[in-house]
Amino acid sequence: MICRIWRGWTTRENADAYQGIVLGQVIPGIEAMRIPGFRKMDLLKMEHGDEIEFTTLMWFDSLDSVRAFMGEDYSVSHVPSEARAVLKHFDARAVHHSLLAHRVQPSDS
To answer: Residue 73 is part of a domain; what is its CATH number?
Structure first.
């Protein structure tokens, strides 16, 4: 399993707009592509003073699945123009990590 990690930063004023674009347009658009081997996408948010950092985690079966999404230069960022308009700055390239372990803890119930 491969995790594609990308970060973008907004001002506090643009954070809600960016979140709405990602949840309402970007993620549904990627899901509609029906990329072979694409499993899920997580969106994280963290405050840094005057900036808000957003991190996306995209989960794929393999690097071939990532290539099916982005092409041969698969590390390049996928940032639609609507999202670029409200981002202050962002990673030009995503990073890709191999999942080595996934340990689910038993529930107490």
So the answer is: 3.30.70.100
d(CA 62, CA 91): 22
Question: pLDDT value at position 15?
Answer: 97
Q: Beta partners for 42?
A: 57
In which domain, by residue range, is 9 found? 2-98
pLDDT tens for residues 47-57?
Answer: 999 999 999 99
Distance, in Å, from the CA atom of 18 to the CA atom of 14, rounded to the nearest integer, reads 6
DSSP for 27-77, written as a single string: HHHHHHT--TTEEEEEEEEEEETTEEEEEEEEEESSHHHHHHHH-SSTTB-
Closest CA to 85 of 5, 4, 7, 21: 21
